Amino acid sequence: MTTIFLGAPGVGKGTQAVLLREHVGWVHVSTGDLLRAARRDDTKLGRRAQSFMDAGDLVPDELILDLVREHLASLDPGASILFDGFPRTLPQAEALDGVLEELGRQVNQVLLLDGDDDELVKRLSGRRSCPNCGAVYNVHWSPPEEEGRCDRCGADLVQREDDAPDTVRRRLDVYRELTEPLIGFYRESGREPAVVDGIQSMEEVHQAVLESLGMEVDCIPKTAETGE
Ligand code: AMP
Questions:
Q1: Which end of the chain is less enclosed by CB atoms within 10 A, N or C?
Q2: Any residues with CB less than 8 A from the CB of 102 and at least 6 apart, and which?
Q3: Phi then psi dihedrals of residue 197, to 5 deg
Q4: Residue 128: which of 113, 109, 150 has the closest Cα?
Q5: For the CA atoms of 204, 200, 175, 39, what is the dihedral angle to 10 degrees?
Q6: Mutate to test the pocket of ligand 1, among 31, 62, 64 (most ligand atoms within 8 A of CB)
Q7: HSE-up of 127 (CA within 13 Å, CB side)?
Q8: Cα dihedral 192/198/202/204 (nearest 10)
Q9: Is the CB of residue 27 less than 8 Å from the CB of residue 71?
Q10: Digit-coded pLDDT (tens) for 144-166
Q11: Over the chain, what is the mean pLDDT?
């Protein structure tokens, strides 16, 4: 099973993908996470991606496609995969179909998390994360007990460079221009995206996601760590 999560930055794709990973065991493939890991490891790819990411622009398709091909080759061929933040352009979506075909797979379902821009800007610019243990907070909805400090490990929290308000606006513009057309691409090729309202509580979105995927609605696991 191969599923794609479409949706603007900040709408909660990462959070919901982590819940699905914890809940139904799907493999979560986030190109944003893979790129951030490449930057932390200071690889050639990480260094090439840095300026695009910091400006809120997309990393060039060929770099992303190499990254995804390499990552897919490392996965269990029978795994159910959930793509989060990929594909983000029409060339990426077309290339993904080809890559999956070579692997005897296809895109089985496309899910669109929907959200209003003002809400997304507020969400993203309020996000803080712990560079030490990966915990994620939001200064508006889920602040740490002590401002700026991780509840779990006490490290100083940081704001992702690309979550600064101007960069967030840029990321949303890029989404509308380059990624939103994928809705039409999947619709026209008979893979109509299922739409879920992303501006509800994390639990409500999770239930709606499970329902739209035809899965049994259940309670969410308490251990889930959530990213974007
Ligand atoms: P994300 O965590 O998915 O919001 O991604 C953070 C940043 O990584 C994006 O703003 C882009 O600069 C880059 N990025 C992630 N995925 C892709 C992709 N599929 N294509 C191009 N750039 C990407």
A1: N
A2: none
A3: -70, 115
A4: 150
A5: -70
A6: 31
A7: 27
A8: -70
A9: no
A10: 999 999 999 999 999 988 888 88
A11: 91
Q: Please confirm whether the linkage preceding 87 is cis (ω < 30° from 0).
A: yes
| Widest distance between CA atoms in the chain | 50
The least confident of 15-24, 98-107, 171-180 is 15-24
Contact 14, 226 (CB under 8 A): yes
Which atom of ligand 1 approaches the CA of 88 most closely?
19
31 lines ligand 1 (CB under 6 A): yes
Q: Which candidate, 76, 69, 16, places its Cα nearest to that of 205? A: 16
Supply φ then ψ for residue 112, to 5 degrees.
Answer: -110, 120
Apex 214 CA angle, 79 and 106, nearest 5:
40
Q: Is 89 in contact with 61 (CB distance < 8 Å)?
A: yes
Sheet holding 2-7, edge to edge: 27-30, 81-84, 2-7, 109-114, 194-197
Q: Does ligand 1 lie within 6 Å of residue 198's CB atom? A: no
Ligand 1 pocket, 15 CB below 6 A?
A: no
The 10s digit of each residue's pLDDT in 46-75 is: 999 999 999 999 999 999 999 999 999 999
Distance, CA of 101 to CA of 104 (rounded, Å): 5
- Higher confidence at residue 217 or residue 14? 14
Ligand 1: does its nearest atom lie under 6 Å from the Cβ of 127? Answer: no
Question: How far apart are the C-alpha atoms of 131 and 115, rounded to whole Å?
Answer: 27
For the entire predicted model, the pTM comes to: 0.86
Read off the pLDDT of residues 112-136 as tens digits, 9 standing for 90 and up: 999 998 889 988 889 999 988 888 8
